[in-house]
Amino acid sequence: MRLFLFFLAGLCVFELRAEANDLIEIYSGDLPIVLSAPHGGSLEIEGVPERKGQGVKRFVRTKDMWTDQLTVKLADSIEKRTGKRPYVVVANFHRKFIDANRSADLAYESPEAKPVYDSYHQAIASARREVLKRWGRGMLFDVHGQAAEAKAIFRGTQNGQTTSHLVGKFGQEALSGEKSVFGLFAKESIAVIPDLGPEHRETRYTGGYIVRTYGSSSGGAMDAIQLEFGRELRLLKNNDETARKVANAIVEFSQKYLPAKELTKEEIVERKKGQGIRVGVYQDIGSGRSLVNLLEILKKFDNVTVQKLMAADIQAGALADVDVLIHPGGSGGKQGRNLGEVGREKIRRFLHDGGGFIGICAGAYLASADYSWSLDILDAKVIDRKHWARGTGTVVIALSEEGFLNSDQEELKIFYGQGPLLAPGNKRGIEDYHAVATFKTEIAKNGAPKGVMVGTTAIAQGKFGQGRVVCFSPHPEMTEGLDDLVRQAIEHVRRQ
Predict the structure, then answer these.
(1) How far is the C-alpha of 434 from the C-alpha of 468, rounded, in Å?
(2) Average pLDDT for residues 137-144, to the nearest whole number?
(3) How far apart are alpha carbons 492 and 31 in whole angstroms?
(4) In 10 A of CB 204, how many CB atoms?
(5) Which partner for 140 in 20, 34, 203, 389 could form a disulfide, CB atoms 3.0-4.6 Å apart?
(6) Would you tell me how many other CB atoms lie within 10 Å of the CB of residue 315?
(7) DSSP 148
(8) Quick check: 253 and 225 in contact, CB under 8 A?
(9) 310 vs 351: CA distance, rounded Å
(10) Which helix (H) or strand (E) holds 434?
C-alpha cells in the first residue's frame, strides 16, 4: 500500500493518493526491511525558513541528488524479485529546511518545522515497531549520497555498533564477509568501502543519527546500515541498474540473515512470557548523564527487559509494547517539549489504560501538573521554581510508614541533583498523591533560600486512570546501595 503524507493547518494527514506538495512519501511493507532516504527531496516547506547552521558542526544544506528516486526504485526492484515490498520512508522536503538525519535540536531552526520532522521519524519508528512485532527482528537501510568515490558505496554502522544484534547472532561475517550485504554488493561488481574483512574499519562515513537511533546500538533486534552511494551510481541514467544490483544483494542477504516468516501468535505469546516486566526507558533529547547509571542498574534485575525509546517511538505507539515507562534525569522541559503534545498524550493514554510511569529528577518535573510541557499525571506542583538550580549533594530523606517502599529504615541518605520540590497541586481530575518520603535536610546554594526544601516531597506515588506513577526527586540510581528503590518502584507501577 502506498501512502502519502502532507500537512494541513498544522495536522499531518495520511491519504491514499498523491499530492503536488507531499512532504513525506511512505510505503507500508511485507518484509522485515525498512528503507529510508532523508536527503533527496526538493520541496519547500511553507512557512519554514532555510537553516543557517550557526553552531552546527559539519553543517550541510545541499540535497543528496537522486537518492529519493533510487530508494523507491530499490523498493520496486525488491518487490519484483520477491513479490513483497519493504517499508519505505522518503523525505520529499529539501534538506535546507530540515536535516532529518540529525537530532531534533540540530535538524531545524524554526518551530514550524517540528511537525514535519516529527512525522518523518514517527514513520520510521512505526515501521521499525511493526517489523519487530511481525518478524521479531529486521534491518533498516538508510540511503545517502557521497561525492568522495563516484562508483562506490560506503558502509556506515558506527563500526558495527548499529548492527550489534546481527553480529551477535551470526558473527562478524554477517557484517563484513562475502555473504554480508556489502560482500554481495561486491559480487554485483559495485565497489565497497571499507574493504571486506573485520580488520577494515569505517573511517569517512560511519553512520549518522538515523542508524544510531533505530539500529541495535540502542538495544533490540533491529539493525541499521547507512548506505552512501557515489554519484555515478545515483545518476538517473544509471540508478535503474544500481537499484537492480542492490536489490539482488539485499534479497540474497535477507534470505540468509533475516526471518522468512512472520511470528505466529503462539511465538508472540512465548516471547512476551520470556520478557518479564517490559521497561521502556526514554533516551532522547533532555535525558542526562544519569541515564547511564539507570541502564546499568536495570541490567541487574533478572525479571526486567529494557527497551530504549526515542520521542518518535513513543509518538508512533511503542508504549503498547512495554509495561513501565521510565523518564530519567536531565531536563524535564527539554523532554516534554521534545515529546510534543502527541507524545505527551500517548503517555497519558498509556497510564490511563494501566501502564506504569517512573520519573526520576527531570522525569518528576515532567510528570508534575505545573508546566506547559508537563504530563499532568501526578497532582503535584513545584515549590520555589525560581531556584530550581539549588545545587547538588547528599541529603537525608524521611520515609513514610505507608507507600510502596518496603524498608526497615526510617531515613535514607541519597544523592540529590536539583530535582523538584514537590507539593500537592490540587488539580481537578488527578487523584491526590501520597508522599512516600520527604526531605529532612536540604541543599540551598546559588541563592536558593534556606528552609524551603525541608518537608517537601522527595518520593511520591499516585494514580492516573488505571495506571500508577512513582516520582523520585533525588537519584536512587546514582546512590550506592539504593538500587532496590528502583526495583520496588518498577514492581509497584508495572501493568497489572
Answers:
(1) 12
(2) 98
(3) 38
(4) 12
(5) 34
(6) 24
(7) S
(8) no
(9) 18
(10) strand 434-439
The pLDDT mean for the chain works out to 93
Whole-structure pTM value: 0.83
3-class DSSP state for residue 392?
strand
Q: What is the pLDDT of residue 2?
A: 42
Closest by CA to 365, choosing from 373, 355, 356, is: 373
Rounded CA separation 88/141 (Å): 10
| 3-state secondary structure at position 467 | strand
d(CA 352, CA 13): 26
With H, G, I as helix, E, B as strand and everything else as coil, classify residue 420. coil
For residues 306 and 240, give the distance between their C-alpha atoms in angstroms, rounded to a whole number.
Answer: 42
Beta strands in 212-303 (DSSP E): 222-230, 277-282
**Res. 21: pLDDT tops 90:** no
88, 143, 145: which is closest to 120 by C-alpha? 88
DSSP per-residue string spanning 73-109: HHHHHHHHHHS---EEEEE-BBTTT--TTS-HHHH-S
> Identity (one letter) of the amino acid at 357?
F
What residue ranges define each of the domains in the chain, with the CATH number in brackets?
A: 2-257 (3.40.630.40), 275-493 (3.40.50.880)
CA distance 388 to 385: 5
The confidence score (pLDDT) of residue 296 equals 95
CA distance 250 to 245: 9
Query: pLDDT above 70 covers what percent of the chain?
Result: 96
For residue range 458-478, what is the model confidence (pLDDT) as tens digits? 999 999 999 999 999 999 999
Question: Which pLDDT does position 217 carry in this prediction?
Answer: 86
Place of cell 538508510: 142
Length of the chain: 496
Decide if 229 contacts 144 (C-beta within 8 A): yes
Those residues with Cβ within 8 angstroms of residue 448's Cβ, 6 or more apart along the chain or in another chain: 384, 387, 389, 390, 391
**427: its cell numbers:** 488539580
Please provide residue 344's backbone torsions phi and psi, each rounded to the nearest 5 degrees. Answer: -65, -40
Strands (DSSP E) contained in 93-221 are 138-146, 152-156, 191-193
- pLDDT at residue number 292: 95
- Parallel/antiparallel/unpaired status of strands 191-193 and 138-146: unpaired
Residue with cell 536558593: 448
DSSP strand pairing (392-399 vs 324-327): unpaired
Contact (CB, 8 A) for 233 and 183? no
Whose CA is closest to 131, among 121, 140, 120?
A: 140
Q: Sort strands 324-327 and 356-360 into parallel, antiparallel or unpaired.
A: parallel
Q: Rounded CA gap, 367 and 373, in Å?
A: 9
